[in-house]
Amino acid sequence: MLRRIVCTAVCLLLISLLIASGAGAGFPRGDALVEQTDNQTLWIEVPKEAQEAALEMWTREARRAAQPLTFPAGPVEPLEREAVETMFGEPGSAPGGSPKPGANAVARRQFPEEWAAMAAALEADDSTFGSAGVYTSYLANRYTTMHKRFPYKAVGRVYITGGGYCSGAVISSNNIVVTAAHCVYDTDTNEWKSGWTFVPADRDGAAPYGSFPATRARILTAWRDASSSMAGRRYDVALIRLGKNSAGKTVTYYTGWLGRSWNYGYVQHMHAIGYPSNLSSGKYTYVCAAESFKQATDILGMGCNMMHGSSGGPWIRVFAPEQSGANNYVNSVVSGGLSGPTWGNTFYGARFSSSNIVPLCTAEGC
User: Fold this and answer.
1) How many CB atoms sit inside 10 A of residue 178's CB?
2) Mean pLDDT over residues 270-295, rounded?
3) Closest C-alpha to 143, from 334, 324, 280
4) Domain boundaries, the chain
5) DSSP bridge pairs for 27
6) pLDDT tens-digit profile of 344-359?
7) Cα 169 from Cα 34, distance rounded (Å)
8) Buried residues in 106-143 as b, exposed as e (16+ CB within 10 A)
9) Which of 167, 327, 352, 357 is the most exposed place for a label (fewest CB within 10 A)?
10) What CATH number should be reported for the domain whose range is 9-364?
11) Any alpha helices (H) in the chain, and if so which ranges?
């Protein structure tokens, strides 16, 4: 049975030690009172005590000290790149939505210390963006032009109670975040990670819109049964449903939500956003803009220099800053890279399709 997390000083001390060590204590697989399945997907409910403990644990200081969750462990054998097919499933998409008018002003009143901390660290100049290789990579929410604007504000850090963080993005008006399945369920140990807190627009530990506890997490049963091999990455997608912040607001009130698309061709112009630890120590979001390619069935590749910490970050089609609706579609999330010559220059993710994002969203109610 899932052990209830009680927020005592001893418990918080142990959790802090887990963060420092990068350990990932999790919910045991197969606990009938916790884990449920509908054959295609697998999910767990997060107890109220665990939600409250996670919110209390992830202070600004803890967020700044958090280390990234690494890409899936174990040997990762590259698949020989496949030819692109001419036929796919029927393409589909769901539009995004705008935050509430005046949400920034409301958030500034609700979380004044967080906004003050963010403002104190802002740089006066916006540096020129650069390019390298077959992608363009640039800092995003470090700058005043991006840190509180859509769609950047809909991307945030997913903090894991057992230690570490990933990236994620809001993709539904029902306050659902998409991230990588390896940020939720460890296939090496057959355990769930032990809890999650989402901080949208996280900026060097500042939480301008507050923190949102996970109430439920969902993965594909195919991911549970997969290994950390390249072939398993087509299922490396997870959904996390969020509760309200300390001000009683939902995440979409402040951030709006990104659209999502599935069954589109492998070659797309993408903007990937995440919190890579190898760039600016993961304090700010980075963006890579590049053309995706087919690595294998339902597996995309994309040139990018983001590494650990970017796991779960969205790959966006029809990228359009300041616009919601029929654009800014999440079409994949970061799964990880491969050791060897491409390490640090290319990463991979599940191509959203009828085999991954569709059954997840159907079951969770995106």
Assistant:
1) 27
2) 93
3) 280
4) 9-364
5) 192
6) 889 999 999 999 999 9
7) 25
8) bbbebbeebbebbeeeeeeeeeeeeeeeebbbbbbbbb
9) 327
10) 2.40.10.120
11) 9-21, 48-57, 60-65, 103-110, 112-121, 221-224, 251-255, 357-364
